[in-house]
Design a protein that fits this description.
The protein is an alpha+beta fold and 97 residues long. It has one domain: Alpha-Beta Plaits, CATH 3.30.70.330. It has 2 helices and 6 strands.
């Protein structure tokens, strides 16, 4: 898409929200603000955005016990944007597949 929008969020929960409230989810760049996200979605999908909600998820510590001992790592941090579109507008993530 572009450097602000990383990928769409396609889960069962997000699909249910999309059907009921016309909201779509995206994983976005950590430093992107709501105005940049709104402009990027309007430009990429040619829709009218009414509102943007953002959530930041911090990476969690992960531990695994292996034959070689305890292996530890970290899951990635990411930012999620929930975007409300105007009535009649929709985004088809599978059209360009």
């Amino acid at each position: 898409m572009n450097e602000i929008l990383i990928r769409p969020l396609v889960t069962e929960k997000m699909s249910a929200i999309t059907e009921k409230q016309n909201k779509f989810g995206f994983i976005v760049h950590l430093n992107a603000n709501k105005i940049e996200i709104k402009k990027a979605i309007e430009k990429a999908f040619n829709v009218k955005v009414l509102g943007v909600n953002t959530l930041r998820y911090s990476g969690k510590q992960k531990y695994r016990y292996t034959k070689a001992g305890i292996t530890h790592g970290r899951s990635a941090s990411y930012k999620k944007a929930i975007v409300k579109l105007a009535a009649g507008d929709t985004i088809d993530f599978y059209a360009n597949a």
